[in-house]
What does this fold into?
Amino acid sequence: MSSTAHLHGGIGDSIKRKEDGRFLRGKGNYIDDITLPGMLHMAILRSPHAHARIKSIDTAAAGAKPGVIAVVTGELMAQHKLAWMPTLSGDTQAVLATDKVRFQGQEVAAVIAETKYQAEDARDAIVVEYDILPAVISPDGAKATGAPLIRDEKEGQKDNHIYHWESGDKGTTQAAFAKAAKVVRLHTFYPRCHPAPMETCGCVADVNPGTGKATIYMTSQAPHAIRTVFALVTGLPEQNIRVVSPDLGGGFGNKVPVYPGYVVATAASLLIGRPVKWIEDRSENLISTGFARDYHMTGDLAVDKDGKMLALRVHLDSDNGAFFSDAQPSKFKAGLFHIVTGSYDIPTAHITADGYYTNKAPGGVAYRCSFRVTEASYLIERLVTNAAIELGIDQAEFRMKNFIQPEQMPYHSATGWVYDSGDYPKAMNVALEQLGYDEMRKDVEARRKKGEVTGIGIASFTEVVGAGHGADFDIIGLRMFDSAELRVHPTGKAMLRMGTKSQGQGHETTFAQIVAEELGIPAMDVAVEEGDTDTAPYGLGTYASRSTPVAGAATAMVSRKLRDKARKIASHLLEAAEEDLEWERGKFYVKGSPDRAKTIQEIAFAAYTNLPEGMEAGLEGVHYYDPPNMTYPFGTYAVMVDVDKGTGQVKVRRMVAVDDCGVRINPMVVEGQIHGGLAEGFAIAFMQLITFDDDGNCIGSNFIDYLLPTAWETPKFETGETVSPSPHHPLGAKGVGESPTVGSPAAYVNAVIDALSPYGITNIDMPVTSDKVWAALRSKGVTE
Amino acid sequence: MKVTMRINGTERGGDVEPRVLLVDFLRTNLLLTGTHVGCDTSGCGACTVLLDGEPVKSCTMLAVQVEGRDIKTVEGLLQGGALSPIQVGFHEEHGLQCGFCTPGMMMVGSALLERNPDPTDEQIRWAISGNLCRCTGYMNIVKAIKHAAKMNQEAAKAGSHAEAVPAGGGE
It folds into this structure.
């Protein structure tokens, strides 16, 4: 037996994961593992150009290739009114291009054939003639006089501007800046990166010609919302659409949007009457599916003579690519960026944001992030460290001086957020102690005297996750609640289904633990299923660290509902009044007579065999949870780096991460999530970059050019914790999967900037690669 | 072309085009879907299998190149129906999250332990540096391989090992 098999598996137990068994045996069921009888394969032809008018598409040669069943073009899709589809941000996106291609990698045509090899052979035989147009690859380019109009098909669209959005108070912010003793400015670019889960996106679409029912197996983090989108796009009745998300090989936001491949495969299956599989390859994944960030940000921080923050002003230009398809709540055009005042008591702030079309892939997904919180956290934490350096105050001390204090909770921020809880000084103190900050500072000074380039970076981030209360948060109008349905079988074993979808986060274990705690059924005895829209209750899915805050809360609430019914049944079985019964995890007993007890298993059996008169049979329930507020996980990260003056190479010597995500349901799983996020933060800070040449060619279309860290580069992490339970979550939990990716990039970069600060270097945009560091040092006359 | 090889101890064969990749042969012809495709270009290691005991990326070999040779995949790791030490190590140390890279990681890990029964952290990190993981930050993968090494050493002393993790989930 495994080492934790004896554990009940309640809240706080680090039981081993229930889902591991199939993965360890190579028996996971990922999208490409699905094979249906008569299944065909689809390959997509993509644009080699960033911007070009399509003159002609000749599919004759491709159609004549062995094994080819059909060649689908935009023209054919247009006949079925499917050449364009709505995006999650209320824009439109081409499914297959009909007029122009607007980014390199855009979908132009698709081949459906008997085998994958045949489909790819025939794809290469499609002949497309293009008239190449000049490409726009940045917001500055999009704004330039005479810039080509990318979205010329949109009525009333005269330029490449998408949106203007503001938050905070312009007047009070201006007034505060006028009084400031010091204003510190940081202009920084959070570059385009890509979540790159190990499994790419894909689907198997199976439209049954007899019943008309469309079953679409799909790599989706939000299968229920996708079903609704499909119903709206295709006009199919929603009860005839079943979306099934099988095991997902990671997601990180990449598997939230609807991609053209899903729509084409479904249309092809409908037209042909056979199942169609589409699995993108890695290059297709990197060049065409949901990218992240691409924010050009300028932040100004006003400080008084005593080092107290007075006001924050931010302007950002967002590069959204060819179609505005950010997956985010519809009210907020720049996501939740207005959390940018972070962990600090800043009396007033004003944020302006403008979005632009460019000839780059659409996306703007929240890559391990709650809707642009990562960009916000990066900007404020970089700005605060720069301000501390400029003011000659220690980074930690400057933060301590300006933190929102625990007694200010719930805290109303200048941009309208209501922070639910937090003790920022405490997390800072734990991190500093764990690092041995004072000693390490002395060590840095000593090394610098010897000519070494070394530094310490700190980031004290605050996130806003768990979207969200439905009045403010929706995706295309769907309120962002989530759900849990719990069925307890006669033998006392249970089946739990939620509207979320794990991509590796361990839901099958963690959510069973919530039932174990609240209803007393051991976690081992609770099967957890998600991702099948025919069986699971409706929910908005897993992203933005919302599963535990929302579906986890729903699971607690439905467990409590069943416990209430169980109390009535126990009262009947024990012939005692309900109010005379005491609950102890797993059983009801009569007050003062602990021997007179009924276990939850006995009660479950009675729910089907021996009910009180007039009671409905069964022990089942469902709960839809609309959270009263967001949750606000936070933490302090501290990083030490050493820089090689000769090569510019940065080595992370230590990385200390103290997280406060409220109550931890399975500490082992939480720790694993933090490790993963710290590694992705490291990757973003130092390696991952999707960039483009002047013609709009994507540089970063494979794992040779788009660098992901291996075990060799990835630092070792030292973790710590504080616990500030969320006051409004039924379990006090807050969500954690994204904190380390939100908080750590600034900590890594701050360490490099701290190391370079003696030379007057104040910024290097991510990824902080050796060549950039080398050039920065050389520009200040530093040599070996 | 006809091709024959030993896979997980059993002779298996098929009729394939010369261009068919080993990973496609394993997954499509033999339905051994535990070996995954993450990149197609040798960049990620999700498709790693053992060829005559050495890790290779099966997306970058042709099936016909393996004629007459010995292949071990994740499906061949079980020992007498029970999880082998490398599998137990990944379970006990939480060395997997989404599970997609896990088969490749376990193949590399088991090959490492064959030639180095007591590797250091650094040796493990170097050995798995051809395999990418996006979920774990590698911390617990290193621990998982160490766990397996320790189990092997204890088994060598005692003469038996293997803990059970049921296929249907559970502890």
Summary: The first strand of chain B starts at residue 2 and ends at 7. Residues 93 and 123 of chain B are 18 Å apart (CA to CA). The beta strands of chain B are 2-7, 10-15, 48-51, 54-57, 70-72.
